[in-house]
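Trying the structure run again after the queue cleared.
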Amino acid sequence: MQVEQQPTETTHAQGETKQERSGVALKGLLALLLIGGAIFAYVIWSGISSRVRAGNTLAAETNHLAIPTVSVISPKTTPGGEEIALPGNMQAFIDTPVWARASGYLKAWYVDIGGRVKQGQLLAEIETPEVDQQLLQARAQLQTAEANLKLSEVTADRYTELFKTDSVAKQDVDNAVQGEAARKADVASAQANVSRLEQLVAYEKVEAPFSGILTARNIDVGALVNQGSNTPGKELFRVASIDTLRIYVSVPEMYSQAAKPGVQAYLTLNEFPGRKFFGKVVRNANAIDQSSRTLLVEVDVSNPTGELLPGSFVSVHLKLPSNIPAMTVPTNTLLFRSEGLRVVRVKDGKAELVPVIMGRDFGDSVELVSGIQPEDKVIVNPSDSISSGQKVEIVGQGQQQ
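Done. Tokens:
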């Protein structure tokens, strides 16, 4: 029996040894799988993160390269001149459109553009047959009202006399007297209607409102004219008084003391080289425009010969009370835009388009009388496509000679 039990114990020990070996092998396999999965996840994460970093780097470099680089220069302070020249537009002292006050067809016109007219001079005639017939009807109604009034007056006088002898009742007298009053009101109403239509008929004749020159004629014979058609370009005529001309000019705030009423000024025009036309400041707005920091000033100049034309571009020269310092910048800092002259300054890393007014021209540099300060940084050779608020990077700052 003892000899037969020894193989059984040996077999049991061998089985336990095999289970232990299989458990160890399974644990090893799981460990290898975990390690392999970790290595695989790390490889994937490394690839993704490197791509993200590369993308972020590329985006940052792209954004950096998209920011334009600019060179800037600081304005140079120079003594101002004894006078300032500012642009202005010449206007007629009075410029008025002439509209139709009656509807009809144009019968005739008598003055064309460029013709001088006197106040009250006949410019054109309009045919209004409907209004003419209405006037005839109104006059007939007035005659009827006047005849009824006469009858009422006779009746009222007669009843008043009869009442004195107690031949009629008091009520009949009152009716006759009040009937007379009603007829008087009818006559007044008819007279007002006749006066109204007579005024409309008078509007058939278009007359000049004041003495001047005819600058526009927008009507011809046979054209239909509508009363009160106040649409720009639809006026019959336009009359301008040009014996005296107005020039409106915007004076920078720092020179506002040179634009007081009564100050003498003179004008220069390209079509009259070497000539000066003298005038004076007659009024100003007495308020600085906050958007442009300028003072609106009116200069009047006499034009008895009519050689100066309304609408002309002029340079207005004003004497300065003292030499006021001005800013000088190179000409290659200027931008000529449709809205006016601009320079581009850099503020907080962004471009800012600033409206400026030019004074004297020195050739390679110009004098700016408003818009910038000595501490500003002005871009040299700015791009035409640059806009306010655009980010820029300064790469160099020059000095004016």
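Confidence is low (pLDDT under 50) at residues 1-5. Worth checking whether this holds up in the mutant runs.
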